[in-house]
Design a protein that fits this description.
The protein has 16 helices and 14 strands. It is α/β, with parallel strands linked by helices and 409 residues long. It has a six-stranded mixed beta sheet, sandwiched between helices. A four-stranded parallel beta sheet has the order 5-4-3-6, sandwiched between helices. Helix 3 packs across helix 5 and helix 9 packs parallel to helix 11. It is globular and about 80 Å long.
């Protein structure tokens, strides 16, 4: 394969991925494969985490972007490149362009997280904020490419990008030759297609499991239909896999090499982010934690050793704060309640005494006195409590009811 020129799918082979691996030597890190004792105990077999969240730019995207841009003809490089992305692809294209001496323009949505915008600029790209959703940003980037002659670098729908991402699969085989299952998040499908191509070419017995967010799951209906279909208005906290339609190029490879595509809930995603932070000491974005979410959702269905690909760690701190709170609530470690209390001196102290006996820690508390539904002698109290699990949450609510409080939510 000669990088930078179109190729039919059947010509994408293991040698192409090995060629990409040589090209990426000294550019992309060989990221660590870390064991997880907690996940291993849940699954009943060894579980290892492929830490692409520790890759340069914070995700696997550098691999495919570099291979794609390096394969451009001299006149194409001279014209520059353009990309559209809310984060990871933007940073991958920016750094790859900087390393290769190519001018890069990256379109990002208005309202994109400031740390991602700043990082993309720091890698040397010109950032243009345009569009309120990724589709609008994508259209703006493609229009710029038509007007200027810059080469549009697609995040997943190109053979060079796919073989670049496939180098993750080669590393997994080198680091864990006995692997039986690889679990990977799926958006457009470039990473899953590349890993599947690389791994199945060497070890056809290895099971490849793709994972999508329930609110942005275009692959299950597409695979059932036999062609890419559009899922309208995808909604998920996992913006890295928030894609409404599979890519044409990766779709055929996913059909051939990926054994199964599962979906996970938002609760599972937030719990997975929390688990990675607490148990593995790794900052992982929701898309990157989707394989862990799949393991948490159905741990008994995976044959080990299992490798879960943590595809990225670029998460806005404000979003991380909300995700962690959501994850704690999903795990029964954070409880929000509203209840009505008599509006008299000492009533709050009495309520807090009940919570003290129930061993619930008050994180936040507020009073509402102006609701027309309240009686003249009532006040509504909103509580945010730190708890110890689902059973403890039930015990706290039972204690409040036994004490005569009306629990509203």
């Amino acid at each position: 394969m000669t990088f930078g020129t179109p190729h039919p799918l059947h010509r994408l082979m293991l040698d192409d991925v090995r060629g990409a691996q040589k090209m990426l030597s000294g550019v992309a890190r060989t990221t660590a494969l870390e064991g997880s004792r907690h996940l291993s105990s849940l699954v009943g077999a060894p579980v290892l985490l492929k830490c692409e969240n520790l890759q340069r730019t914070g995700s696997f995207k550098l691999r495919g972007a570099y291979v794609r841009i390096a394969g451009l003809r001299p006149e194409e490089k001279a014209a520059g490149v353009v990309a559209a992305s809310a984060g990871n692809h933007a940073q991958g294209v920016a750094l790859a362009s900087q390393l290769l001496g190519v001018r890069a323009t990256v379109f990002m949505p208005v309202g994109a997280p400031l740390p991602k915008v700043a990082a993309t600029r720091d890698y040397g790209a010109e950032v243009r904020l345009q569009g309120h959703v990724v589709d609008e940003t994508l259209a703006a980037a493609q229009e710029y490419a038509r007007e200027t002659g810059a080469v549009f670098i697609h995040p997943f729908d190109h053979p060079d990008v796919i073989v670049g991402q496939g180098t993750v699969g080669l590393e997994i085989l080198e680091q864990c030759p006995e692997v039986r299952t690889i679990v990977v998040g799926v958006g457009g499908g470039g990473l899953a297609a590349g890993i599947g191509l690389a791994v199945k070419s060497v070890r056809p017995d290895v099971r490849i499991v793709g994972v999508q967010a329930e609110g942005a799951a275009a692959y299950p209906p597409s695979l059932a239909a036999g062609h890419p279909v559009v899922v309208g208005s995808p909604v998920t906290m996992a913006d890295g896999i928030k894609v409404g339609r599979p890519g044409d190029v990766p779709f055929g490879l996913v059909q051939e090499y990926v054994d199964e595509v599962r979906t996970v809930s938002e609760d599972a995603l937030s719990s997975a982010v929390l688990l990675c932070l607490e148990r593995a000491k790794l900052v992982v974005e929701p898309a990157g934690a989707s394989p862990v979410a799949a393991l948490l959702s159905d741990p008994g269905s995976f044959r080990g050793p299992v490798v879960a690909v943590l595809s990225g760690g670029n998460v806005d701190p404000l979003l991380l704060q909300r995700i962690l709170r959501h994850g704690m609530a999903a795990a029964g470690r954070y409880l929000g309640l509203r209840l009505r209390v008599a509006d008299r001196p000492g009533a709050l102290a009495t309520l807090l005494a009940v919570l003290t006996v129930a061993d619930a820690n008050v994180v936040d508390i507020s009073h509402v006195r102006t609701d027309p539904l309240l009686g003249l002698t009532e006040v509504e109290v909103e509580l945010h409590l730190e708890t110890k699990g689902p059973e403890h949450c039930r015990e706290v609510e039972a204690s409040l009811r036994e004490a005569g409080y009306t629990v509203l939510a």
